[in-house]
Fold this protein.
Amino acid sequence: MLSYNDAKTYFDNYIDATYFKIKEKYFNITSEEDMKRFNHRNDMIKQKYIHTMRVVENIAKMAKKMGQSVNFLELTKVVGLFHDVGRFEQALYSDTYSDYLVYKDNPTIKNHGEEGEIFLKEKGFRIFDTPEIYQPAIAKSVGLHQVNELPKE
């Protein structure tokens, strides 16, 4: 059974771990520039976390208004929770959330949705303890969440 509450616990632990990875990177802050960069990346994570919680709240309201099942509601909330996981990964190595600036020289990843899908498939589902039956739908939803048009496949 997919549980949003379980996923949220894992997600919050992941956010804490991301923060500590950034903190380790800037552990020996010796310049004002490094302190600004450290604070900026923490602000990026905070803003994206707040955004993610708003998405979860809004997607849950939509699913309830549509009269969807409890299982569907849990699935949509988990997708909302993971939809920007690629952004949190970006914060580990970039000072921007601009997909163009982050990925312009990357031949394999085009945007944060794809990065999130790859992250979930490679290690995220283990971190978040996601039941296998839901993984393809969640990964594809995350990978395509920001596209203007869905692929025809």
